[in-house]
């Protein structure tokens, strides 16, 4: 490895980082992570911390999952790459498709279309949703509805259904025919409603109103995260997603569940859809499918959609979509090993237990620190603090102050994620009780520093 000074001086000289201003990486050098073990990462200066970000919501099994590493190495020796475009396939991806079909059977998923990651999976679901309606002779169904504050990746399709202006404004005009309804976000919403059940009903009424305004026969799909992740960890009331399912059914609209974050145990259930007792028509998965060790994802396809495509005799179901790395054998091998280890460890149960511990601790921090305006969580290992300079007015904290909280917490032993005025926590699902307490202790120091 190059010496520390070399890496620090050259980090932003030839490299642009995602999700930031290029100049910011020059003025505020990032943490240069050079090693990891278990649930901890080590920077170039030798400072070791608990990774309370979980890589980027994806390292569910931690950084020392040898079965996945071994599977990758062995597959590289056997078949490092081959395409799954028409005419060729590979053994690993065939086996994986069978395993995923079994794993997602409670959600009614029947087929897998493999991708290179979450944004690809969302793009695939949007394309297939439009094509599904064309196959069925309803070509006017081209529009999409989503939720404000929702995040669905960075492709033009995903950016178009995103509910955050940060991912939209500089890239407009985006895909036409995309509309958003208010988020079930009790801390900030246009209805000034703090009761989760009442807010859910108001958001559902907004959905029905938007469908009626656009015309049900023009809408292809509604896409949502079962629990909003990157938008600030916003869990809806338990009534929300089941009611969305019913509204979609009534209007002939497909329901796409973006499970890129919530899949594979993070919510304390195996999926977010299962957490709320919902069967979507398609599911977008990625991130934890390989524990972050290989870029890989899939769009899972429900029975109704699969049957429409496979029974078509017009040619409209020919899929003119795919990626060079769809069904990559190394990714498939990694996913097979990861899925086996994920099930063996039952990480959803630990996520529920540790998530409850973390959520309780965060609420206790709120009592001690006026800067904490809102605490969100309560569904597995995905939590957030929203920081304010004035709790009564809910004034968002400034960038410099939250940066101080972040840096102090890092020095105290925990790497957390800052997103706007939010501190987001999504640690590995193999976190233990002591690790959870350590994250809370680091946040205590961070909050106490301002």
Key structural traits:
single chain; 450 residues; alpha/beta; Aspartate Aminotransferase, domain 1; Aspartate Aminotransferase, domain 2; 2 domains; seven-stranded mixed sheet; five-stranded antiparallel sheet; 15 helices; globular
Low-confidence stretches: none
What is the H level of CATH, i.e. the homologous superfamily of the largest domain? Type I PLP-dependent aspartate aminotransferase-like (Major domain)
Averaged pLDDT? 97
Query: Helicity level, as a percent range?
Result: 25-40%
CATH topology-level fold name of the largest domain: Aspartate Aminotransferase, domain 2
Briefly note the structural class of the backbone.
Answer: alpha/beta
Reported CATH architecture of the largest domain: 3-Layer(aba) Sandwich
